[in-house]
Amino acid sequence: MTFFRTLSLQARQLLAASLGFVAFLGLTGYALDRAFVETAQATMRERLKSYAYAYLGSIDFYRRSNELVAPEYPPDPRFDTPRSGLYAVVVGGAQWRSPSAATAGRELPDVIVLPINVEVFEGPIRSPVAEAGDSPAEFYIYSRGVGYEDDERHIDYTLAIIEDAAALDRQINVFRRALWGYLGGAGLVLLLLQTGVLRWSLRPLRRVVAELARVQRGGAQRLAEARPRELEPLAESINAFIVSEREHLDRYRNTLSDLAHSLKTPLAVIRSRLESETDDAAFRAEVATQIQRMSDLVSYQLSRAATTGHQLFAAPLEIEPAAEDIVRSLEKVYAEKGVLCEFEFDETARFYGEPGDLQELLGNLLENAFKWANKRVLLVVATVQGGEKRNGVQFSIEDDGPGIAPADVERLLQRGVRGDERVQGHGIGLAIVQDIVRAYRGTIRVEESTELGGARFLVTFPPGL
């Protein structure tokens, strides 16, 4: 079993095709062989029958005896040639043998007396006795029961035409050699043709493997576009995976780079204070301030790194339970405002990604809505139909706060920018949302809420592969 599991696709298909060819050619050869044998036997039967009718039309009896008067010219000259392989025999009320059968003796099979007008075709029948050194011969026999009647008598007899099966066997053997020779040649040609077809059919797969190797070596950025329709989903998934992994790597590199760059300033401040003359209290206050700043920076960078991005084969996640947990926490934080959050959920809506990304996305958007709302927040989740692809999902988060001016939308989505410097925060929540949306190939739109009057964040994740 291990051998078959390790076979290549081409070897598997070639083996399956070979077995199919062998079975097909074997059944075809058997069917043609049986058809030829039956046709040859039927032809022999009709020929022997015609000989019998030729004899019956010319045989007569002597007036005062039951002896037959044989025709002067038999229907085939072999009837007059001893041991020619073609014989005529009469048994029953009259006895007679053709010259060819007169010397055959007991080599011929016994002929059964038949009722009048009954005909029988048998064969091949082995002869009961053969001459010394000879193998038993086989014969085909056509027999017919006949009644003869004139003014003085009535005679019932059976006429049998017997032919050696050797000639028919030779004919069948010649046909079989030709048949299996042609079928074997046709099978070999078809097998070679199938091998060529398989190599041609699997060439796109070999091309994909070669392109993947080139991508691994850094010689290409993605798989080529031209490929058979059946390989499109595979190639698109591989390309999406390559892009996703590169984006992950770039994000991690950028996060570490940004963190290192951000920590330079606080560390430089601390170093300069160490080198300057100052009292202990002022130094401790300055160090505490810079440590808090570094802590905030680290928290920000870790939060951004936590957004794992687009997962190609992630399981679908229910959205409502996660949203309910986030809203319960926010209602406690903003309890003094008495904000009411309303839900409108499509029960079939699912998020295809990491649970942490869903938490970050909803958490930041809902927290922003709670922060700026007066009394009401509305969360609407709808399914984006994908047809043959998996469905997408759309989030709509609205509040009844002051809203966002269109000119400020792009600026507020930048890292570290806050809508109001007097409001506590780091200005990174919406930037994290934007990173997640971009990683999942989604879109984010900020507009005025027609229902509540404040801001409306519309996040759409398109149908996937």
UniProtKB/TrEMBL annotation:
SMART domains tied to this protein: HATPase_c
Domain Histidine kinase: 258-465
EC number annotated for this UniProt entry: 2.7.13.3
Residue intervals of the HAMP domain: 199-250
Annotated keywords: ATP-binding, Hydrolase, Kinase, Membrane, Nucleotide-binding, Phosphoprotein, Transferase, Transmembrane, Transmembrane helix, Two-component regulatory system
PROSITE patterns noted in UniProt: HAMP (PS50885), HIS_KIN (PS50109)
Reaction(s) the record says it catalyses: ATP + protein L-histidine = ADP + protein N-phospho-L-histidine
A molecular-function term among this protein's GO annotations: hydrolase activity
Keyword S-adenosyl-L-methionine part of the UniProt annotation: no
Location within or outside the cell: Membrane
Chain ranges passing through the membrane: 179-198
Pfam families according to UniProt: HATPase_c
Protein name stated in the entry: histidine kinase
Species per Swiss-Prot/TrEMBL record: Coralloluteibacterium thermophilum
